[in-house]
Amino acid sequence: MRLPITTLALLAALATPLAAQEHDHHDDHVAEADGLRVVHAWTPARGAGDEALIYMDVENRTDAEAMLTGGEAMGQELALVGFTYGASGEVWTVLPGLPVPPGGEVELAPRVLALRLPRLAEPLVEGEELEIEVEFGGTHLHAHAEIGASSATAHSHAGHNH
Amino acid sequence: MREIWAGLSPDLQDALIALALLAPGLAAGALVLRGLAPFGLVRAMLRRFAWVNLLFVLLIAVSVGLGVGLVAQERGLRQGSARAAEGFDLIVAAPGSEVTVMLAAVYLQPSDMALLTGAQYDEIATAEGVAFAAPIAFGDSVDGAPVVGTTPDFVTHLAGDLAEGSIFATEAEAVAGAFAPVGPGDSFTPAHGHGAAAEGEAHAGFSYTVTGRMAPTGSPWDRAVLVPAESVWSVHGLANGHAPGDDRIGPPYDPVYMPGTPAVLVRATELWGNYALKSRFTRSDMMAFFPGTVLAQLHGLMGEVRAAMSALATLTQVLVTLSVLIGLVILVRLIARSLAVLRALGAPVRFVFAVVWSYSAALILTGAAAGLVLGLGAARALAALITVRTDVLVTARLGWSELHLVAGFVSLTLILALLPAWAAIRRPVLADLRN
């Protein structure tokens, strides 16, 4: 069967943006600089004035230990916080830093570890993205955090390899 | 506005919420009673129908008490189970269910678990940033209480200084939990296993002597008996963690002679170290987790149940109050003649309305107050029962959640109490006088 040239051209025109879109979509899940990777950054939707907790997988593909120290988003400092739970309830404590061993990974996950934005100047709306900067000492890594549902417990693509 | 609210202390926020919940009922009362003083007549009505009033108050008290007791009990159980897990910073175990390992290691619920090898334990114990790594080896029991093999460091970490005596120093010595069935000076032979299937004679010929007793921790460990991990391995015919001729108790263990352990409690030298160690030991051949995280997730799920329980309790209270109010409407029919006489003597309609509303309000407020006391008593009785059954110290006390529940109930029912008052003034005066 022969397809008319116009049909082929139309298919090609349609296919190219789709492929590019898939590529961009894929890249949104990974940010990399100097062998340090932030994968699947995400945060639940929150209202203005609330605090936001940002989660991600951090990978160190270098031969040296990297120290995750915090970050920045919406013009505010992101604090690295660790979760504890006891009779007084849930507590997030600010940590001075967290070493990521060479070739190792650290998972910032709900009720374990997070980067905390203390007070949102504007709401985080589900489906949008939050631009963040993750700091490893002097190395700054720009990433996009997916904004999930307010009840989300993981990134929408958690489990996918990148 | 939101920022001002966020800046208030939690207690002040709760107090303001309670006031906001009460406000509609109080406002209704203020409007009804403005410029009137019907309390003398109300007291007379309360005395005249004392038994009926008592029944109404009891009905309200039981429904309020049920709600208060459930909410207070749920919080007590949540706080008690969280308190019991506070000493367990990081647990490392063979891959499997975190919940199963948590129940076994923190709450001493017997479970079959894969073992970490001596080499794996050695890797954990010698990792940078590890203050101590205590094996938790269970499987034996005495008089129904678990006998757990561990290290002297773990005993001190869990309960601080001993309440009496000294920590075990040889394989034949043991430390009893605060409420264990054996105490200092006692000797016992451990049974192999737990419960009815425990084999009492499996370790015949071997006995422990209790040398000390721990202070209470509020956890199931209060009923346990702690012994050196070495002796747990020895009595099961295994190497005791040290090379032959080495009679030490406690780490370091020789990986070649260490049979393995179902779980290891890890404490880091720094707080952040626990998170780094969790990442390090989360891998295909072992898992590391924070019991606090697992428990918080479970409690998060319980939160949904808690919300449903609160809604059901509120609904029950409102239904009971509606029944009481219907009863009051019937009661108003019985005192209709008295009310008609009141109006014939020149009492304004508003005064009659205020008398009936105040009468209903007195029953509601007395019932709610009695319900608070009843709920607290029920919660404490349930807490004592759960503590005996689970060995987790559960304490129940009144909190803001219960006060909010009662405030909302009182406010709603004070407004509903307008109905019998309205029914009373709608009655035909002349007909009631003739009757």
Explain this structure to me?
Chain A has 162 residues and is mainly β. Chain A has one domain: PCu(A)C copper chaperone (Immunoglobulin-like). Helix content of chain A is 15%, strand content 47%. Chain A is built from one helix and twelve strands. In chain A, strand 1 (30-33) and strand 2 (36-44) form a beta hairpin. Chain B folds into two domains: 12-84 and 298-434, no CATH class; 90-289, no CATH class. The longest helix of chain B is centred in the last third of the chain and has 44 residues, at 291-334. Chain B starts with a helix and ends with a helix. Chain B has helices at residues 2-7, 10-33, 39-48, 50-85, 98-105, 118-125, 152-159, 229-235, 271-281, 291-334, 336-344, 349-390, 400-416, 418-425, 429-434, and strands at residues 90-93, 130-142, 145-150, 164-165, 173-176, 187-188, 191-192, 208-213, 225-228, 263-268, 287-289. Chain B has 435 residues and is of the alpha+beta class. In chain B, strands 1, 2, 3, 4, 5, 6, 7, 8, 9, 10 and 11 form an eleven-stranded mixed sheet that branches. The chains are: A mainly beta (162), B alpha+beta (435). Chain A binds chain B through residues 48-49, 82-87, 89-90, 93, 95-101, 104-107, 111-113, and chain B through 2-3, 6, 79-80, 82-83, 85-86, 271-272, 274-276, 278-280, 282, 290, 292-293, 295-297.
Give the key terms:
heterodimer; A: 162 residues; mainly beta; Immunoglobulin-like; seven-stranded mixed beta barrel; 1 helix; 12 strands; globular; B: 435 residues; alpha+beta; 2 domains; eleven-stranded mixed β-sheet; 56% helix; 12% strand; elongated
Summarize the topology.
The complex is a heterodimer of chains A (162) and B (435).
Chain A: H1 5-28, E1 30-33, E2 36-44, E3 52-60, E4 66-68, E5 70-73, E6 76-86, E7 89-94, E8 98-100, E9 105-108, E10 113-117, E11 129-136, E12 139-148
Parallel strand pairs in A: 2-12
Antiparallel strand pairs in A: 1-2, 2-3, 3-9, 3-10, 4-8, 5-6, 5-11, 6-7, 6-10, 11-12
Chain B: H1 2-7, H2 10-33, H3 39-48, H4 50-85, E1 90-93, H5 98-105, H6 118-125, E2 130-142, E3 145-150, H7 152-159, E4 164-165, E5 173-176, E6 187-188, E7 191-192, E8 208-213, E9 225-228, H8 229-235, E10 263-268, H9 271-281, E11 287-289, H10 291-334, H11 336-344, H12 349-390, H13 400-416, H14 418-425, H15 429-434
Parallel strand pairs in B: 3-9, 5-8
Antiparallel strand pairs in B: 1-10, 1-11, 2-3, 2-7, 2-10, 4-8, 5-9, 6-8
Helix pairs in contact in B: 2-13, 3-12, 4-10, 4-12, 4-13, 10-13, 10-14, 12-13, 12-14
